[in-house]
Design goal:
alpha/beta; 2 domains; two-stranded antiparallel ribbon; Rossmann fold
Length: 216
C-alpha cells in the first residue's frame, strides 16, 4: 500500500487549459502579438508559465523581455479570470476523498506559480486535506527537477518507496524518475497518451478510480 500520493495540478486534477489560453491570448493581443487557438495550448503548458509564454510568442520574438512583458499582463488578468471555465476532472474529488479516508496522505506538486496553485486547490478541493500544496517559487527549480518532490517527502515523513506520483505530462514522468518515486501517467490530461508511453512510467491510467488498484 502507498502512504502518499502526489498529484500534478494542471491537466491532472484540474482542467485549466481554457482559462490559461484566454489569459495568455489577452496578454499577447495587448502586446500586438498573434494569439492561438485553445487546443494549441495543450503543447505549451507543463514547464511553468514563463515557458508557456515563450512557446506562445512568435519566432524571433521569444526574448526574456517579451516573456516578462507577457507575464506582467497575464498575472493580474489570470488572477481575475482563472475560475471561469476551470473545473476538476470527473471523478477526481471522490478518489481523493476515498484515499484520505483510507489514511493515504495527499499532496500537490505543480509548476503553476504558488499563489494560484494554492488558491485553486483550496477552492476546488475544500473538503480534502493536503500535507503540501507546492508550486513555482523563487529559488526553487521547476519540475522536472525533483526538488519539489523531495520537499513533499520531507514534509509528509513518507519514504520514496511508499509514494506514488500522478501526472499528465512527460515533465511529470521525468520528475518522478528523477526523484526515485513510482510514476503514474493519466491519459485524460493535456499530453497525448503516446507521449506518456514514451517515458515508460510504471502505470498509465484512463480513469481516476484506477488509482485505487495502484495504492491499495
Amino acid at each position: 500500500m502507498k502512504k502518499l500520493v502526489i498529484f500534478d495540478l494542471d491537466g491532472t486534477i484540474l482542467d485549466t487549459i481554457s482559462d490559461l489560453a484566454t489569459s495568455t491570448n489577452h496578454a499577447l493581443k495587448q502586446l500586438g502579438f498573434p494569439t492561438h487557438p485553445e487546443k494549441d495550448y495543450h503543447a505549451m503548458v507543463g514547464n511553468g508559465i514563463n515557458k508557456m509564454f515563450e512557446r506562445a510568442l512568435p519566432e524571433g520574438q521569444k526574448t526574456q523581455e517579451n516573456i516578462m512583458a507577457v507575464r506582467q499582463i497575464f498575472l493580474p488578468y489570470y488572477d481575475g479570470h482563472k475560475m471561469l471555465r476551470t473545473h476538476p476532472y470527473l471523478g477526481v474529488i471522490g478518489v481523493m476523498e476515498k484515499l484520505e479516508r483510507e489514511g493515504v496522505k495527499l499532496a500537490v506538486a505543480s509548476n503553476k506559480y504558488q499563489e494560484a496553485a494554492e488558491l485553486l486547490v483550496k477552492h476546488y478541493f475544500p473538503q480534502v486535506t493536503f500535507v503540501a500544496i507546492l508550486g513555482e517559487r523563487e529559488g526553487i527549480p521547476a519540475k522536472p527537477d525533483p526538488e519539489i518532490v523531495f520537499e513533499i517527502l520531507k514534509t509528509s515523513g513518507v519514504s520514496k518507496e511508499d509514494t506514488l506520483y500522478v501526472g499528465d505530462s512527460p515533465v511529470d514522468m521525468q520528475t518522478a524518475k528523477s526523484a526515485g518515486v513510482e510514476a503514474c501517467g493519466v491519459a485524460w490530461g493535456f499530453s497525448p497518451k503516446e507521449n506518456l508511453e514514451a517515458c515508460h512510467p510504471a502505470y498509465i491510467i484512463d480513469k481516476p478510480d484506477e488509482i485505487f488498484g495502484l495504492v491499495f
